[in-house]
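Note to self: the last two entries modelled the partners one at a time, which told us nothing about the interface. This time every component goes in together.
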Amino acid sequence: MPYNIAMVSDNFYPQPGGVESHIYQLSSKLINRGHKVIVITHAFKGRKGVRYLTNGLKVYYVPFWTVYRETTFPTVFSFFPIFRNIVIREQIEIVHGHASLSNLCNEAILHARTMGLYTVFTDHSLFGFADAGSILTNKLLKFTLSDVDHVICVSHTCKENCVLRASLDPLMVSVIPNAVVAENFRPLSHHSSDPRRNNVPGPPQPLGPDDTITIVAIMRLFYNKGVDLLIAAIPRVLASHPNVRFIVAGTGPKAIDLEQMIETNVLQDRILLLGAVRHEEVRDVMVQGHIFLNPSLTEAFGTVIVEAASCGLYVVCTRVGGVPEVLPNHMTEFAAPEEDDIVAATGRAIAKLREGKVRTDLFHGQVKQMYSWTDVAGRTERVYDGVVGAVGSEDFYGGDAAHGHPGVRSFALIDRLKRYYGCGIWAGKLFCLCAVVDYLLFIILEIFAPRSRIDICRNWPKKVLGRGEVKTTDMAEEAEAILRKRDMRRRGSE
Amino acid sequence: MPTSPTRVDAHAAASSSALDPNLLAPRDALYGSAVSAAWGARKRRERARSSDRRRKGQFKKLLWFKQPFPDNYTDERTFLDHLQRNPRLQPYEFWSLMTDATVIVQHVASVAIFCCCFVAIYLERVSPISVVSWASFGTFLAWVLWDYWMVQEEARATSSLTGKSQEKPKQPNDNIAGSDEAEDPSAGKEQPTIGNSPYPPNVDPVSSLSPRNQQRLATARSALLIYAALLGLSPILKSLTKSTTSDSIWAMSSWLLFTNVAFFDYGSGSGAHLPASISTNSALMASTVLASRLPSTTHVFSLTLFSIEVFGLFPLFRRQLRAKSRNGNIALTVALVTTAAGAVFATLTGGGRGAWIAGVILGSIVTFFAMGICSWWLIGLQKYKNEIYGPWDPARPIIRRHWD
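The predicted structure of the combined assembly is written out below.
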């Protein structure tokens, strides 16, 4: 059963990042499965209005005031009129928000519930509980998530964190990991054109004691990525292993410390600093190395280590957040977030590579089996089925636990208010007030901008094939459709 | 008899849930509320289900292989198993809290004494000269004690330094820190300790006097300088806020003294770094403002000097005393509290030995109980402490600093 889905987030292309690529990949795979997907985000510099991406993914860049680092100003209600317009125009059934710090996503979930739409939320990050900023964020998240149909988290640690932050029932939180496009992260020796070599890799070739081992570290140089650990560990690793060199890519406020370390220890010929690297170029950097070092201090999923493993690198990483769940033990060497332990773990990794114990040439195929966006889209679709009630709550929530879960959450205002009221002594009342105001706004909009006056937009043309696979119709028709759309837009602007 | 039926019910619940997890257990009826009943029943069903699942295969918190569980499956055995609550909780102890509270009591008491002295001077019950003489005498005694401590510390530092001198003959950092502090005029009288430096600042290594004596000389010199400067400034200070009405003066000085109490550095570090400057500045400002209500230049000079002694030097001494001697600290607290309580009562009632004694008794009791109740309250509040730690918290990197 195909759905009309709207992905809402502040984070989307052209801004680069993990959430952005997640939304894009998930959307395009869902479109392949026969759903209609649109993306709603705020306008970026030089990009406002409606755009089409590959496969007919339609993106609405809504004009909105951004305050800080492409985050919109939280106004609670101001997004409602245009959001309602888009949702009615596109006949949306499911609103899927991404990233907890995205204001657009939080607002969209509130308005969608008011309008009687199903909502799903994906959490991509971890938050603590101690500092004032986290407490405020957690309260806001609780507001949004006290009336959401289902939550998706990218790792089990992320799920635990999210359940605690928003006081959710763990059964309504699914864990669906991120994925990588394995084709974009092929090792250097890998020839995808030759399928025989794919299946039958040659015998492992151990590195001799004199061969140079290259260690790659790619990260934005921020404190929480563990740059301090990296800076402390690099000179010690280089001192104890003669035929080792480093490639460090990325930029950020800690870059100056890194350069200072190189100057102090006179390591210019053994460390290569690449500066900022675009996501498309990451693979080209990775394949130059043998070991990938990721000393991050907090990580919800750690897509980068999956990408590194896919490129055939042995991974040395800190045991933080969701990282231990991501890769099997034969691909990784774990370390505590301590300088000594990272040096020791890197040493172990170098020794294993020199002995030829690690079959890094097999990594690519294995990672390909583990993570794929098609799989992610399939699992997300199951969440949509459960939310809408297409899958019985018995199946969805497992066995007879569904007793406490009516398959579909009630949209009645009084039920929603009950959920908000439980959020806290003061916060609960404030949230109820917000929900009521939102409902009144909805009624006012229904009166002054009635649904009958909103055009229903045409869908991207597609033809349903057997097995639920969907292919766009032949090229000519597609091109014609694009031309027609362009025509319409031109007419609209005149 | 509330315990035995519960236990029976628990047994019944256990047996009934073993029989059929879908039925409500008697315990659910005991709790009455339908919600909790449903919850309890569901919990048990979940448990039954998870034991069901265990037969299928163990759930693992891993993402890289497909498990025979739905995505929203919650494993009771491993869910939140790394959650830690209050891992670094150190329970407070009553008496150590009480000793820590003396810091606050001492400061409030010294502010109260200052106010009483001003009132006494203002009403011309006490001669300002006698107040400042006694205070200066006290400061001198304190300085002698301080000097004795410094000599002791220096002896210890040199003995430890000779042991270390093979490795580190020179410590440039200490000299830099020392000269910073020496520039501060209010620290001049009681020269702050310079840890383990062999050559303190403003000491001429070629002089015939010993370094200690040179330092004493420097202290005496800066004390004289402050004395002379104050003497010269007094007429100006006297007329500085003369045109302001008395009402404003009282209001302003109260606020300034409140600021002093609020921003005072109550930290427990034993180092002789100065108290927070905003606190000292506001106290001196208060004394300057009050000085304009006094009749003569001598009065103004006495009050300002007294305030420098009370707000500038006395906190340094108290800090050092707290670090050096516990009994001395308690004795000072008792002395300050009794004096302050007596003085406040005498000031409020208009004098007399009886008022003084009554104030001492009443004030001491009230202070003691206030300290006790506050400490006990703080200990009682600890049970609401609920810090949550888990794998989602950013790790704290452990880096060995090596200086080469």
